[in-house]
Amino acid sequence: MAKKTPARPQQQTSHLPQGHPPVPPQKVGVLYVNLGTPDNTGYFAMRRYLKEFLSDRRVIDLNPVLWSLLLNVIILTKRPFTSGHAYKTIWNTKEDESPLLTFTKAQCKKLQEKMKAEKPGVECAWAMRYGNPSIAKGIDELRAKGCQKILLFALYPQYSAPTSATVYDKAFDHLKTLKWQPAIRTVPSYHDHPAYIQALANSVQAHVKTLSWTPDLTIASFHGVPKRYLLEGDPYHCFCQKTGRLLREKLGIPAQKWLLSFQSRFGTEEWLKPYTDKELIERTQQGKVKNVLILAPGFVADCIETLEELNIRLREDFMAAGGKNFSYVPCLNSTPDGIDVLAQVTLNELSGW
Fold first, then answer.
1. d(CA 210, CA 52)
2. What is the topology classification, in CATH, of domain 27-190+336-349?
3. What number does CATH give the domain 194-328?
4. Long-range interactions of 82-89: CB distance < 8 A, separation 24+
5. What is the largest CA-CA distance in the chain?
6. pTM above 0.85, yes or no
7. pLDDT of residue 117
8. C-alpha span between 164 and 223 (Å, rounded)
9. Where does the pLDDT of residue 17 fall: very low under 50, low under 70, confident under 90, or very high at 90 and above?
């Protein structure tokens, strides 16, 4: 009678003890973070959003007692109405969300597809510094997927304390609460990245081809900050200037037909100059400008500052001042060039992971 071959012991498929919760495979995560958005255009949603935004000491660093009084008693009483009205003019009614949220979701989705093809094992998520979804939620989402290494990507090409730095501050505030922190990297300024400059140039050139007129002036409008920040060591102004110079050279636009300026100021303190609105209206009233092309290179996605402040309000003021033609170049948003820029920066910063 033939002898039976002894059965092989079953190969152990896990080193975890019985009853241990499942441990997902180790992955690398990328959290893309933009500024923020209200949940809706109503008074209370706007108030919550503005309160979080304007209470950030990186954004407003005035005397905290006096600023708190001014903010809560005066600003948050009136501004939710005016800001809500502005958001209504650009609101994505189909999805019931702000354009910034729409574009950021689309960017993250396309970046996830690109990472899947070029660097498998990378998980992408997105968050907002103010409003929803929060940075803490984004970090926890990536950790739940097994990400023990996370790249934090503040979506601002030009570093500044009130933008990039506050994103990373908020992320580390959450990390301080964790018993097991993931390894962290942060994305530096990419204001002079060749792919970024080329993508901006491509967007301007493609847009100009759709016009039936030639611009007298091309404006690169960046978000402003108080001049004091520059004097205190914030490099933002320098980074904007370099982006503008590289872009103008790439486009071949003469210096006399180019303006780099700053928008979105508030309060009585002096901000970085020249001011976009004042400079354009002054030149228009003087008869120096009739046809203007404007872009906002510091924004990776269209938002309230570009769609409402520039493309609606500034356009109306320009026409009222005697202007003839006004055209706004959309941000890179989720275009192939825009996604390629973000992907290149991401992959570079993931090197070694």
1. 40
2. Rossmann fold (3.40.50)
3. 3.40.50.1400
4. 83/38, 83/46, 83/50, 83/304, 84/38, 84/41, 84/42, 84/43, 84/46, 85/41, 86/304, 86/308, 86/309, 87/38, 87/41, 87/46, 87/304, 87/308, 88/41, 89/308, 89/312
5. 111
6. yes
7. 95
8. 13
9. confident
